[in-house]
Specification:
243 residues; alpha+beta; tRNA pseudouridine(38-40) synthase activity; EC 5.4.99.12; isomerase; 5 helices; 26% strand
Length: 243
């Protein structure tokens, strides 16, 4: 039987979701907890491979087991896991439903704080020495919908078969000193959101014009885009499936 896990985590103490040699990962901690409670070796497959320091407000993984577990299983698992990983739901799905390959969309949020704030040090990029023009940034966001090849925002030397992504929404909102970027697409490339955010910041502070984004994308060259934004401001907030 195949089960889906809906969960969230703070990425501060982990080297991403996927198991890494000699580094602690969310997948390793989750699998150890499942294996201990179910008393068998459990392997999970996550909806995404979040980078070191990236957080997830809502993410899914699947695992297979023939064992039955009761209504208290979520409580047991949460009791066993550290405080920075939380399970919200576990439910049975079709045997061929894949947490990564059957996802229809993924949505990320990125947070920027325009003031020095000790309470958001681990959850936002603090840019308090200069202002950002959110109108210029949102003007640039509209250009993203004109393209599908985002090679310029992809980490170099990956094994992607294609760098094409279909972006469904991309916009910035401001609430006081906090800026939030929301972006949703059918898939994302490694480092893509952070590279887009870093480029948008350069547009927002006047180093680039919004229209420069077209040339950056058309160059299909990572060196043409801005530097990547810090991982700590990035959250995976939703993953969609046709259950």
């Amino acid at each position: 039987m195949r089960y889906f896990i809906a969960f969230s985590y703070s990425g501060k103490n982990y080297f991403g979701y996927q198991i890494q040699p000699n580094q602690i990962s969310v997948q390793e901690v989750l699998e150890n907890a499942l294996s201990t409670i179910l008393r068998e070796k459990i392997k999970t497959t996550g909806a995404g491979r979040t980078d070191t320091g990236v957080h997830a407000k809502k993410i899914f993984a699947h695992f297979d087991t023939e064992k039955n577990f009761g209504e208290n299983f979520v409580y047991q698992l949460n009791s066993f896991l550290p405080s920075d990983i939380s399970i919200s739901r576990i439910f049975e799905v079709k045997d061929d439903l894949h947490a990564r390959f059957n996802a229809t969309f993924r949505t990320y949020e990125y947070y920027i704080t325009l003031e020095k704030n000790p309470f958001t040090q681990d959850s936002s990029w603090q840019i308090w020495k200069r202002d950002l023009d959110i109108m210029r940034i949102n003007e640039a966001c509209k250009i993203l919908f004109e393209y599908e090849d985002f090679t310029s925002f992809s980490k170099l030397h990956t094994d992607n078969k294609t760098n094409n992504c279909k972006i469904y929404k991309a916009f910035w909102e401001q609430n006081g000193s906090e800026l939030k970027f929301t972006i949703s697409a059918d898939r994302f490339l490694r480092n893509m959101v952070r590279a887009i955010v870093g480029t948008m910041v350069e547009i927002g502070n006047g180093k680039m014009e919004p229209s420069d984004l077209r040339k950056i994308i058309e160059d299909k060259n990572r060196n043409s885009a801005g530097t990547s934004a810090p991982a700590k401001g990035l959250f995976l907030v939703d993953v969609g499936y046709d259950f």
